[in-house]
Protein backbone atom coordinates (compact mmCIF):
# COMPACT_ATOMS: atom_id res chain seq x y z
CA UNK A 1 0.00 0.00 0.00
CA UNK A 2 1.59 3.26 -1.12
CA UNK A 3 0.34 6.73 -0.14
CA UNK A 4 1.76 9.61 -2.16
CA UNK A 5 0.92 13.04 -0.84
CA UNK A 6 0.72 16.38 -2.59
CA UNK A 7 0.19 20.08 -2.27
CA UNK A 8 -2.95 20.09 -4.37
CA UNK A 9 -2.10 22.98 -6.71
CA UNK A 10 1.54 22.07 -7.36
CA UNK A 11 1.76 20.44 -10.82
CA UNK A 12 5.21 18.98 -10.10
CA UNK A 13 3.65 16.85 -7.39
CA UNK A 14 1.15 15.36 -9.80
CA UNK A 15 3.90 14.61 -12.30
CA UNK A 16 5.69 12.67 -9.58
CA UNK A 17 2.49 10.80 -8.70
CA UNK A 18 2.15 9.79 -12.36
CA UNK A 19 5.74 8.54 -12.25
CA UNK A 20 4.88 6.44 -9.19
CA UNK A 21 1.92 4.99 -11.10
CA UNK A 22 4.07 4.06 -14.10
CA UNK A 23 6.74 2.47 -11.93
CA UNK A 24 4.47 0.58 -9.55
CA UNK A 25 1.84 -0.63 -12.03
CA UNK A 26 -0.74 -0.59 -9.22
CA UNK A 27 -3.74 -2.90 -9.17
CA UNK A 28 -5.84 0.04 -7.94
CA UNK A 29 -5.68 3.81 -7.68
CA UNK A 30 -7.51 5.59 -4.88
CA UNK A 31 -8.21 9.30 -5.28
CA UNK A 32 -9.22 11.61 -2.46
CA UNK A 33 -10.66 13.84 -5.21
CA UNK A 34 -13.23 11.45 -6.70
CA UNK A 35 -16.59 10.60 -5.14
CA UNK A 36 -16.97 6.84 -4.48
CA UNK A 37 -20.20 6.70 -6.46
CA UNK A 38 -18.53 8.34 -9.49
CA UNK A 39 -15.41 6.18 -9.70
CA UNK A 40 -17.03 3.75 -12.16
CA UNK A 41 -17.11 6.55 -14.72
CA UNK A 42 -13.34 6.25 -15.05
CA UNK A 43 -13.61 2.74 -16.50
CA UNK A 44 -16.32 3.93 -18.87
CA UNK A 45 -14.52 7.06 -20.11
CA UNK A 46 -10.85 6.40 -19.42
CA UNK A 47 -9.78 7.19 -22.98
CA UNK A 48 -11.66 10.49 -23.21
CA UNK A 49 -10.36 12.98 -20.63
CA UNK A 50 -12.79 15.75 -21.59
CA UNK A 51 -15.81 13.48 -21.27
CA UNK A 52 -14.47 12.05 -18.01
CA UNK A 53 -13.94 15.50 -16.52
CA UNK A 54 -17.51 16.39 -17.43
CA UNK A 55 -18.89 13.14 -16.00
CA UNK A 56 -17.05 13.79 -12.73
CA UNK A 57 -18.30 17.41 -12.70
CA UNK A 58 -14.70 18.40 -12.13
CA UNK A 59 -15.28 22.05 -13.01
CA UNK A 60 -17.47 22.39 -9.92
CA UNK A 61 -15.46 20.10 -7.65
CA UNK A 62 -13.09 22.67 -6.20
CA UNK A 63 -10.04 20.62 -7.14
CA UNK A 64 -7.22 21.94 -9.37
CA UNK A 65 -6.74 21.22 -13.07
CA UNK A 66 -8.18 17.88 -14.14
CA UNK A 67 -5.33 17.08 -16.52
CA UNK A 68 -2.93 17.05 -13.57
CA UNK A 69 -4.85 14.10 -12.15
CA UNK A 70 -5.75 12.51 -15.44
CA UNK A 71 -2.06 11.91 -16.18
CA UNK A 72 -1.98 9.65 -13.11
CA UNK A 73 -4.96 7.64 -14.37
CA UNK A 74 -3.35 7.38 -17.81
CA UNK A 75 -0.08 6.18 -16.25
CA UNK A 76 -1.82 3.09 -14.82
CA UNK A 77 -4.23 2.08 -17.60
CA UNK A 78 -5.12 -1.30 -16.09
CA UNK A 79 -5.69 -0.11 -12.52
CA UNK A 80 -9.09 -0.06 -10.90
CA UNK A 81 -9.91 3.51 -9.87
CA UNK A 82 -11.68 4.10 -6.56
CA UNK A 83 -12.84 7.31 -4.94
CA UNK A 84 -12.84 8.47 -1.34
CA UNK A 85 -14.07 12.04 -1.52
CA UNK A 86 -16.23 13.02 1.42
CA UNK A 87 -19.59 14.53 0.42
CA UNK A 88 -20.36 17.94 1.88
CA UNK A 89 -23.40 16.68 3.75
CA UNK A 90 -21.21 14.04 5.41
CA UNK A 91 -18.68 16.71 6.38
CA UNK A 92 -21.39 18.74 8.03
CA UNK A 93 -22.69 15.68 9.85
CA UNK A 94 -19.21 14.81 11.09
CA UNK A 95 -18.84 18.27 12.61
CA UNK A 96 -22.04 17.90 14.62
CA UNK A 97 -22.32 14.14 15.19
CA UNK A 98 -18.72 12.93 15.02
CA UNK A 99 -16.78 10.83 12.52
CA UNK A 100 -17.84 7.47 13.97
CA UNK A 101 -21.54 8.21 13.60
CA UNK A 102 -21.15 9.16 9.94
CA UNK A 103 -18.75 6.34 9.04
CA UNK A 104 -21.06 3.62 10.30
CA UNK A 105 -20.72 0.09 11.59
CA UNK A 106 -16.99 -0.37 11.00
CA UNK A 107 -16.01 2.85 12.81
CA UNK A 108 -14.29 0.95 15.61
CA UNK A 109 -12.07 -0.91 13.15
CA UNK A 110 -10.57 2.40 12.00
CA UNK A 111 -10.19 3.89 15.46
CA UNK A 112 -13.01 6.39 15.10
CA UNK A 113 -14.76 5.58 18.36
CA UNK A 114 -11.64 6.33 20.38
CA UNK A 115 -10.89 9.84 21.61
CA UNK A 116 -7.60 11.24 20.36
CA UNK A 117 -4.76 11.71 22.84
CA UNK A 118 -5.04 15.20 24.31
CA UNK A 119 -1.77 16.44 22.83
CA UNK A 120 -2.68 15.22 19.35
CA UNK A 121 -6.15 16.77 19.62
CA UNK A 122 -4.61 20.14 20.45
CA UNK A 123 -2.13 19.96 17.58
CA UNK A 124 -4.82 18.96 15.11
CA UNK A 125 -7.15 21.73 16.24
CA UNK A 126 -4.30 24.23 15.87
CA UNK A 127 -3.67 23.01 12.34
CA UNK A 128 -7.33 23.43 11.46
CA UNK A 129 -7.27 26.96 12.84
CA UNK A 130 -4.17 27.78 10.81
CA UNK A 131 -5.58 26.20 7.65
CA UNK A 132 -8.62 28.45 7.98
CA UNK A 133 -6.56 31.57 8.69
CA UNK A 134 -7.63 31.65 12.35
CA UNK A 135 -11.11 32.70 11.24
CA UNK A 136 -13.06 29.72 12.59
CA UNK A 137 -14.88 29.91 15.92
CA UNK A 138 -12.86 27.99 18.49
CA UNK A 139 -15.77 25.73 19.36
CA UNK A 140 -15.90 24.54 15.73
CA UNK A 141 -12.33 23.22 15.71
CA UNK A 142 -13.05 19.82 17.34
CA UNK A 143 -15.69 19.17 14.69
CA UNK A 144 -13.24 20.04 11.92
CA UNK A 145 -10.82 17.49 13.36
CA UNK A 146 -13.61 14.93 13.22
CA UNK A 147 -14.03 15.69 9.50
CA UNK A 148 -10.33 15.00 8.92
CA UNK A 149 -10.53 11.74 10.86
CA UNK A 150 -13.49 10.71 8.72
CA UNK A 151 -11.59 11.52 5.53
CA UNK A 152 -8.65 9.41 6.74
CA UNK A 153 -10.92 6.46 7.45
CA UNK A 154 -12.64 6.74 4.07
CA UNK A 155 -9.28 6.73 2.30
CA UNK A 156 -8.17 3.72 4.31
CA UNK A 157 -11.39 1.83 3.57
CA UNK A 158 -11.13 2.54 -0.16
CA UNK A 159 -7.49 1.45 -0.13
CA UNK A 160 -8.44 -1.88 1.44
CA UNK A 161 -11.14 -2.29 -1.18
CA UNK A 162 -8.46 -1.77 -3.80
CA UNK A 163 -6.48 -4.72 -2.44
CA UNK A 164 -9.28 -6.99 -3.66
CA UNK A 165 -8.73 -5.88 -7.26
CA UNK A 166 -7.03 -8.31 -9.66
CA UNK A 167 -3.28 -8.04 -10.10
CA UNK A 168 -0.06 -8.26 -8.15
CA UNK A 169 0.76 -4.57 -7.87
CA UNK A 170 0.18 -2.42 -4.81
CA UNK A 171 -2.63 0.03 -4.22
CA UNK A 172 -1.57 3.63 -4.88
CA UNK A 173 -3.40 6.32 -2.90
CA UNK A 174 -3.37 9.92 -4.18
CA UNK A 175 -4.10 12.43 -1.44
CA UNK A 176 -2.99 15.53 0.38
CA UNK A 177 0.09 15.35 2.55
CA UNK A 178 -1.90 15.56 5.78
CA UNK A 179 -3.86 12.45 4.95
CA UNK A 180 -0.64 10.63 3.97
CA UNK A 181 0.91 11.06 7.43
CA UNK A 182 1.87 7.74 8.93
CA UNK A 183 1.35 8.83 12.54
CA UNK A 184 -2.32 9.83 12.42
CA UNK A 185 -3.43 10.04 8.78
CA UNK A 186 -5.01 7.43 6.54
CA UNK A 187 -2.02 5.04 6.88
CA UNK A 188 -2.59 4.95 10.64
CA UNK A 189 -6.31 4.24 10.18
CA UNK A 190 -5.49 1.50 7.69
CA UNK A 191 -2.98 -0.09 10.04
CA UNK A 192 -5.66 -0.30 12.73
CA UNK A 193 -8.15 -1.94 10.36
CA UNK A 194 -5.65 -4.26 8.66
CA UNK A 195 -2.36 -4.47 10.60
CA UNK A 196 -1.09 -7.19 8.26
CA UNK A 197 -0.91 -4.75 5.32
CA UNK A 198 2.45 -3.11 4.65
CA UNK A 199 2.06 0.65 4.24
CA UNK A 200 4.52 3.16 2.73
CA UNK A 201 3.91 6.91 2.88
CA UNK A 202 5.64 9.55 0.76
CA UNK A 203 5.14 13.29 1.09
CA UNK A 204 5.77 16.15 -1.32
CA UNK A 205 6.28 19.44 0.47
CA UNK A 206 7.15 23.02 -0.42
CA UNK A 207 9.06 23.85 2.76
CA UNK A 208 11.31 21.65 4.89
CA UNK A 209 9.30 20.12 7.74
CA UNK A 210 10.13 20.41 11.42
CA UNK A 211 9.06 16.77 11.70
CA UNK A 212 8.37 14.34 8.89
CA UNK A 213 5.85 11.62 9.81
CA UNK A 214 6.39 9.83 6.51
CA UNK A 215 8.58 6.99 5.30
CA UNK A 216 10.15 9.39 2.80
CA UNK A 217 9.60 12.93 1.57
CA UNK A 218 10.94 15.57 -0.77
CA UNK A 219 10.80 19.37 -0.91
CA UNK A 220 9.97 21.04 -4.22
CA UNK A 221 9.82 24.64 -5.34
CA UNK A 222 6.58 26.31 -4.26
CA UNK A 223 4.11 27.55 -6.82
CA UNK A 224 2.92 31.13 -6.97
CA UNK A 225 -0.58 31.45 -5.61
CA UNK A 226 -2.81 34.17 -4.17
CA UNK A 227 -2.96 34.55 -0.42
CA UNK A 228 -5.49 31.82 0.57
CA UNK A 229 -6.60 33.94 3.51
CA UNK A 230 -8.06 36.53 1.15
CA UNK A 231 -11.15 34.30 0.90
CA UNK A 232 -11.75 34.70 4.63
CA UNK A 233 -11.37 38.48 4.74
Describe the overall structure.
This protein is of the alpha/beta class and 233 residues long. It is built from nine helices and six strands; from the N terminus they run βαβαααβααααβαββ. It has a six-stranded parallel β-sheet, sandwiched between helices.
What's the tally of helices?
Answer: 9
**Rg over C-alpha atoms, rounded to the nearest angstrom:** 17 Å
Largest sheet, in brief, is: 6 strands, parallel
Strand order of the largest sheet: 3-2-4-1-5-6
Multimeric status of the protein? single chain
Provide the residue-averaged pLDDT. 96
Range of helix content: 40-55%
Unreliable stretches covering 5 or more consecutive residues: none
Structural class: alpha/beta
Distance between the termini: 40 Å
Encode the helix/strand succession as letters: EHEHHHEHHHHEHEE
> β content, as a range?
5-15%
Q: Give a count of the beta strands, DSSP E runs of length 2 or more.
A: 6
Approximate shape: globular
Based on the model shown, name its key terms.
single chain; 233 residues; alpha/beta; six-stranded parallel beta sheet; 9 helices; 11% strand
